[in-house]
Amino acid sequence: MICKENKIRFYHARIAAMGPNREIFTGELHVEGNRITYVGDAENAPQKMWDREIDVENDLLLPGFKNAHTHTAMTFLRSYADDVPLQTWLYEKIFPMEDKLTKEDQYWLIRLGIMEYLTSGITANFDMYRDFDCHAEVSRDVGFRTVMCSGLNDFCSSVEEVKEQFYRLNEMSPLVSCQLGFHAEYTTKRETLEQLAKVALDLRKPVYTHIAETKKEVEECYEKYHVSPFGFLDSIGMFAHGGGGFHGGWMSEEDKKICQKNKLAIVSNPSSNLKLASGIADLCGLMDAGIPVALGTDGPASNNALDMFREMYLASVLPKVYHKDAAAMKADDVLSMATTQGALVMGLKDCDCLAEGKLADIIRIDMKRPNMQPEHDILKNLVYSGSKENVRMTMVDGKILYEDGQFFMDEDPLDVYRQTAKIIERMENN
Q1: Rounded CA gap, 355 and 339, in Å?
Q2: Is 0.85 topped by the overall pTM?
Q3: Nearest CA-CA partner of 35 in 400, 340, 351, 338
Q4: Which among 323, 281, 322, 316 is positioned nearest to 298, based on CA atoms?
Q5: Hey, what domains does the chain have and what are their CATH numbers?
Q6: What confidence score (pLDDT) does residue 1 get?
Q7: pLDDT at position 3
């Protein structure tokens, strides 16, 4: 069933707008169409006719989480290639299976991934994978917000295709946008990278890529170009108009200076980096340098969950171990990475907070679960003890897509599961 209400009043709500002061207040939030039209106290709330009025019962309303780096269609590889190093994982396990994928396969696999996003309070994803059109179509049809990032490399696609996709997808739907990108320095020839850098310069657009994910990647780049991946890409003008890097676990002080100069962001993926033993990003060092930090799950083949609560927890505790300082990272800073910063890194400037005129990408957090009690500090509870069980509602673009365990989409969840099982069976038998 699809949820069709377009004028919704939320009342008796606690609201974490995630604005500059990050304070929580009690009041109302109104949605009309796909925009927030009121956020404030109940006494001053305008009186209107509503399609639905929701008593939030003192639960928490929050901007939806932004999964700032993922590969959604890789749901078919969840638990398939575990417990092996990254390079083996990629070249001996992942790439051969991906060669068996069809467009129809990706359709169902992406639907499965979006369902998991919704249960985790994720309202937008920054996705890098093969079939842009398929993912864009699913996102549009489901009503989910997706930013596509091209994964240009030596094995598929071309600079010309990336440019064409950029123009086409940015015109496809208000729910779909596209950013320039490439898979990684180590999978892409210099000539191709130089061509992409010129396109980014001509279009005056940012570029995003996997970078400094492993020690091996950085060392091999030094062997080829005598500089780090950041240094090499900077030398060819790749980041003339900004962008960002996914992972950033092996960055030098010089790399940070390059990020500062080019206004680059880093998207950390703590669960995936730990599982693949890739490294631990110095999030505190990045923040101290004024480098924006967002969070991503990476793909379900390397994580294996698409769970932003797990990423927030790890992003809050790993810096404490890294710096041997229990005060190194604050919970509200991590929550900002998962919401506001993620939106800004992805180019979703109208999805960064709950305020009048912003897009209505909203989640409801159940505060009556045992893990949210007592309420010494609600935001710390959310980061340190919160889980997917606390997500009561996920709204994207003014439409409720998930509420109290029920999906409001145009496909029965059981059909999605059955189709996914068929895909796996076919691949295993080929």
Answers
A1: 14
A2: yes
A3: 351
A4: 281
A5: 7-64+351-407 (2.30.40.10), 65-345 (3.20.20.140)
A6: 45
A7: 55
The beta-carbon contacts of 286-291 under 8 Å, at least 24 apart in sequence, are 286/248, 286/251, 286/256, 286/259, 287/333, 289/256, 289/259, 289/260, 290/260, 291/256, 291/259, 291/260, 291/264, 291/265, 291/266
| Residues 6+ positions from 216 with CB-CB distance below 8 Å | 86, 87
Q: Is the pLDDT of residue 41 over 60?
A: yes
* pLDDT at res. 98: 84
Integer Cα distance of 250 and 218 in angstroms? 7
Helix (H) or strand (E) holding 229: helix 229-235
Q: Whole-angstrom Cα distance, residue 123 to residue 73?
A: 17
The CA–CA distances, whole Å, from 26 to 11, 23, 50, 52, 60 equal 9, 10, 20, 20, 9
3-state secondary structure of 246: strand
CA within 13 Å, CB half, 361? 28
Degrees, nearest 5: CA angle 99-114-275:
65
Whether 27 contacts 380, CB under 8 Å: no
- pLDDT tens digits, 222-260: 999 999 999 999 999 999 999 999 999 999 999 999 999
